[in-house]
Amino acid sequence: MLKRILHIFRNFLFGTANREFLIFLFFLALSGAFWLTISLNDTYEQDIAVPVRLVGVPRQVVITDDLPDTIKVTVRDKGFTMLTYLYGNEIRPIQFKYSSYANEQTMKGVVPVADLQKALYAQLYNSSKIVAIKTDGLEFGFNYGQHKRVPIRLNGDIKFNRSFYLAHSRFWPEYVTVYGSKKQLDSIQYVTTQYLKMSNLEDTVYQIVNLKKIRGVKIKPMQVKVGLYPDIMTEESMEVKIEAINMPAGKMLRTFPSKVKVSFVVGASQYRNIHPEDFKVVADYNDFGNTPSDKCTIYIKKAPKYIRHLRLSIDQVDYLIEENG
C-alpha cells in the first residue's frame, strides 16, 4: 500500500506538466534571490531605535527627570548591514555613568551630542554613517531626597446620563510624593491626572489612571485608582427670607412678600444637607433708594456651590421703607 502511494506521488511530481512547473518555481526563486542580492547591496537610510540607560546612580540620589528610554538614530549603509541592525543583536543599550555628567551646582546632568555619537559609532560597523540623531536632548535631573506630599485632582471631561452628574471623585492613594528642587516643590500644590474623557455614564466607575508628568519632577506613584461617583439630579425649591442691604441708619425695609421661592437642581443625596439659611436673597437699597418706584429688584447673593440652575420665582417685589423708632 505504501509503495503504491509513493509510486503515485512520484508520477505526479515528475510528470511532464509538473516537471515544467517545478522548473518554473526554481527559476522564480533564483531570480528572486538575485533581485534580493542586488537590492541589499544598495545603500539605504534607516531609523534605528537605540536604548539609553543611566547607570551608577548613588543610593541617596533620586532621579527626578530621567534620560529618554530610547532615541531614534538615522543610519546610512548597505542593505545587508541594515538587516543586522534591525533583526540582529548588534545594537545594545548605551550606558552613561551618572558621575561623569551630574552637576552638583545645577542638580542636572547633560550628555553632550559628541559623547552620544562616540558611543553609537562604537557599536556600528565602520561602513555605517550616522545621518541624524532624533532627540530633544539627553538631560537628567536629580536631588537628594527633597520631597513633599500633595493631593490629586481630576483633569478631564466626565459626562453622565442626562439624569446624573458627577457628585464627587476619590483617589487611592489620596496623596502622592513629588521629588524636585526646593523652588519646584514650593510651587506644586497638587498634581492632576492625564486628561480623562468619559461619556454617558450612570453608575460608579473605578479606573486606573496615569498622572500628568511635570518636567524635572518625579511623581511617585505615577498611577492611581480613581472612583467616579454619580448622583441623580432632582429639582427642588425652598422659601427664603428677603433681606435688605445697604439700608441707611434709621430706615427699615419691608417687602411683600417677605419670602420668595428659590428653585434649583441638586443631587438627591446632597439635598438633605441644604437649608434655607444656606441661601441669601437680598434687596439692595443702592439700587432703588434714589429712584423710588412701586417695586424693587431682588437677587440671590449666596447659595451652595454644588447646586445648579438656580432661579427665583419672582425677581421684583412690592416694598415699603419705614423709619425706625
UniProtKB/TrEMBL annotation:
- Reading the lineage from the top rank, the first entry is Bacteria
Instruction: Give the InterPro entries listed for this entry.
Output: c-di-AMP_regulator, YbbR
Q: Which UniProt keywords apply?
A: Membrane, Transmembrane, Transmembrane helix
Protein name, entry field:
YbbR-like domain-containing protein
- The membrane-spanning stretches of this chain are 21-38
Give the matching PANTHER family. CDAA REGULATORY PROTEIN CDAR (PTHR37804:SF1)
Pfam families referenced in this protein's UniProt entry, alphabetically: YbbR
